[in-house]
Amino acid sequence: MQKGKINVQTENIFPIIKKFLYSDHEIFLRELISNAVDATQKLKTLASTGNFKDELGDLTIKVEVDKKKGTLKVIDRGIGMTADEVDKFINQIAFSSAEEFVKKFKTKTEAEQNAIIGHFGLGFYSAFMVSDKVEIITKTYKKGGPTKAVKWSCDGSPEYTMEETVKKDRGTEVILYISKEDKEFLEDYKIRELLKKYCRFLPVPIQFGTKKEQVKVEGEKDKDGKDKYIEVEKPDIINNTNPLWKQKPSELKDEDYKNFYRELYPMNFEDPLFHIHLNVDYPFNLTGILYFPKVKRNFEVQRDKIQLYANQVFVTDSVEGIVPDFLTLLHGVLDSPDIPLNVSRSYLQSDRRVKQISNHIMKKVADKLEELFKENREDFEKKWDDIKVFIEYGMISEEKFYERAVKFCLLKNVDGKYFTLDEYKEKIKETQQDKDKKLVYLYSNDMDEQHSYIEVAKEKGYDVLLMDGVLDNHFINHLEQKLENTAFVRVDADTIENLIKKDDTETPSKLDDKQKEAIKPLFEEMVDKTKFTVEFKNMSENDLPVMITRPEFMRRMKDMSALGGSGMMGMDNLPDSFNLVVNTNHKLIYKMATEENEEERKKTAKQLTDLAMLSQNLLKGEALTGFIKRSVELL
User: Fold this and answer.
1) Please, where are the H alpha helices in 304-418?
2) CATH number of the 2-208 domain
3) pLDDT digits over 456-478, tens only?
4) What ranges do the domains of the chain cover?
């Protein structure tokens, strides 16, 4: 037996590893199985190059739990190690890395600590985070020389023992004696959960326990004459060793992608809209499949739906900094060995390779969207309401994506017709240009609430867009900055004559200034002066006698602030702002102005104001009850 003390100057190295090596102790299982996969893959490579001539046999990695003994085992049939290799890789390299890690760790801030974790090849030593003692029993694949099996044991101090032992087969068995505070890792359900999380797509089969299956008995029937089945116990392989993203897109069908989506998200019952298969090997290595899901109207989107893998080993589902922010709304899988792991987000965002990968993903998404638009515009339009939030978010946040997306970004009008930005500009350039030659894009964000305003605009030959998406307020602002001589105005922001004013001439008024001044106080009495401004407009006699408008700037800033991102602190706490517009050319207003009975004038003012309020869903409670009673009396 060889006893030794690892040459470590730093005291209490294991408590520090135990506490700080990874923020999440469950990572140990990922690290140990990754090592087992690595050893197995190396043996397969040696066999493929003729350097290993024996039978490979069953290469399944086994995970075993023994609650009575308090042990957890990870067993592989990979290349194994000789005594010299154990001494080199376990006692020298890994431990010296551990010491260097601890020395650096002690002098760093928390942010800096996060940035250096993962640089030291400490995968094996993560076992000590959950164990009182760790043993390795290993036998090399090599023939001849000192190739007997070796048993290495360490109780978490710098002291270890290493001795010859008996092991029938090649490969490595790592045995963890789980500590009292980590007994949860002796529970089958917990280990199965971690294997599903971290190892579900590893390239080598991983067995955890057994499962019962019904197997058909060939040539035999049961008493009812039906095919006979018997129950057999089979190894429970928890992983898919050949996930879809590793396969050739040319050999896959749309149904394959849908089935894989269901495998990734078994609780998501809606099929994705479409997918993008990534496959790059230069200047970086990246594979993966991204899915566009249907997004709910309320924008309840989880950003942890893209899973990041490194050579099929699960790393994280928090991919901010690796993909553009707007694409974190997508679902799917990315696999790249070129993304540095376990480092800070600020490091990722400044890493040249990560930026290349991020830009490539964005380009591939833009390519796919443009291809779908060109190949089948009708189908693209059908999907538009579900994908517009991705596209608008991308155009707002990424200049490069905006430049591509202007070709396939659509605007939808209240009649359900779709236009590209250029097509819509062509459509309205003759009719919706004001006196300053500025194009006026009329829009509604609620067709029911703003129905009367939409109808007035359409009667006058104008087109109205439907902008009722969760990001449309921000998107409108962005388009105004990008498109020359353009203004977006909600259809209820003012009278239609004022929204698209062709010149400075005004429609004559039936009321003189004295009559206006006489009835203005009557309307002011009917409204809350902190929210409403009463103004007179010379409109058509066919327009409504009284209407309510909402000033565009204040309303838009308030809406944007409520969603977040207006940049104007406290804007969402400001009271609503309305204009009560009195049509000086309507016969009811003229009759009211010439009416000598003051009580009748007040009744008319009240009824007309309440009608305008009702049309905007602003009449509630006692005021609504009073209006109904008054209407019955008038009838």
Assistant:
1) 345-350, 352-375, 377-397, 399-405
2) 3.30.565.10
3) 899 889 999 999 988 888 899 99
4) 2-208, 245-378, 409-505, 506-635
